[in-house]
Amino acid sequence: MTEENVLEALKNVTYPGFTKDIVTFGFVKDIQIIDEKNITLTIDITSSADEVKSQINTEATAQMNKLGFEHVGINIVAPTPPKQVSNSVSGKNIAPHVKSFVMVSSGKGGVGKSTTSVNLAVAMAMQGKKVGLLDADIYGPNIPRMMGVDGIKPEIQGNKLQPLKAYGVEIMSMGSIMEEGAALLWRGSMIMKAIEQFLRDILWSDLDVLVIDMPPGTGDAQLTLAQSVPVTAGITVTTPQEVSLDDSRRSLSMFQKLHIPTAGIIENMSGFICPTCDTESDIFGMGTTEAVAKEYDTEVVARIPIEPAIRIGGDTGMPVTYHKPDSETAKRYQEAARNLLVFIDKVNAEGRADNSAVQPTTPPGVSACSTSAAAAKPAPAKTEGESCGTGCGCH
Ligand SMILES: Nc1ncnc2c1ncn2[C@@H]1O[C@H](COP(=O)(O)OP(=O)(O)OP(=O)(O)O)[C@@H](O)[C@H]1O
Ligand SMILES: [Mg+2]
């Protein structure tokens, strides 16, 4: 009996709630075959839930028994469950029925945030999660078109709105509420109100994950979101060119200042998959993002090539992940979604999503100011009407 045989058998143990097994996730850390009848395993998991531990214990023991081991010692290493914290330090959550929040951000526009948000949300729904997709890009809402629900108006129930639904994902967007083509001049205080209403006044179900597609940059929308709900995971989307990487540093630095756990970087438009010859070629450079990820102690969670099917999927409201599930791109989005779910699980188990450090210090009714510096070091309270250089409600 070899370690390979043992690993092969453990591949039959799927991680509870996921389709991948504990070996593929890399959770099996140590195998000690003492003799034909005795074995000890160390399995390092990301969840602190007792059900997860006991299911893995039972299934792994059964697999080892099948191999002939009679005495199976399983040491499951799990994060310590989060301590019960009092409200005064646990921060603010105006959408408590949503388990986890994912902020999809980028330093600059047009790098593929909305495309990433759509495909990650669809992938997680296909993996059995209850997923919502909030288009917080109030300036240029694209999600309705990309999800094929443009022109559909949400139903009103009382003074709340029912989210739209497509591909198993609940959706809300400013584009579904405003008249088509209408432009609003957004003041900081209006941005705050819009983001808060999206979280409070939409009848989201009890979601596992709400994916939030942000406007480009690091401004009022990002700060308001971080102050309103404890964001579980931040994802930065970038393209591989150096100029884009400079912007993605800003986005990663914003996560740090807003105390948002960083899930990683998605390198979009990384290489080109030629639809007729099925080969991949380097256009903007590939793999340049790795160094930036290291700088910010995070990782590149996916490299998504330029593929015409992605753009067509976006334009026609038929996301590639759902409509071309066998394509290379769909597989990469599915993989990124799986890894994101593991990351979320870990952050929740460790109780790391906490926005208490970024609460505004301004009095009620006065908008918090918008610069990321303001988030890092809260500005002194201002009274309404007082002039200020930067920040929402000040222009
Ligand atoms: N990997 C890709 N391959 C091909 N086309 C892509 C890819 N990623 C994005 N696109 C296309 O590029 C355009 C811009 O993408 P997208 O709208 O997702 O960017 P964005 O960062 O959300 O932009 P904005 O900052 O304006 O909101 C879209 O037409 C989209 O379909
Ligand atoms: Mg967008």
Based on the model shown, name its key terms.
alpha/beta, GMP Synthetase, Chain A, domain 3, Rossmann fold, 9-stranded mixed sheet, disordered C terminus, binds magnesium ion
Protein model, in words:
With 395 residues, the protein is an alpha/beta fold. Helix 4 packs across helix 13 and helix 7 (188-200) packs parallel to helix 8 (220-228). It folds into two domains: 3-77, Fe-S cluster assembly (FSCA) (GMP Synthetase, Chain A, domain 3, 2-Layer Sandwich); 88-356, Rossmann fold, CATH 3.40.50. It starts with a helix and ends in a 19-residue tail after the last helix. Helix 2 links the parallel strand 2 (38-44) and strand 3 (71-77). The relative contact order is 0.14. The radius of gyration is 23 Å and the shape is globular. Mean pLDDT is 85; it is low at 84-89 and 364-395. The strands form three sheets. Strands 4, 5, 8, 9, 10, 11, 12, 13 and 14 form a nine-stranded mixed beta sheet that branches. A three-stranded mixed beta sheet has the order 1-2-3, with helices on one face. It is built from 14 helices and 14 strands. It binds adenosine-5'-triphosphate and magnesium ion (MG). The site of adenosine-5'-triphosphate (ATP) has 20 residues, from helix 4, strand 12, strand 14 and helix 11. Magnesium ion binds next to helix 4.
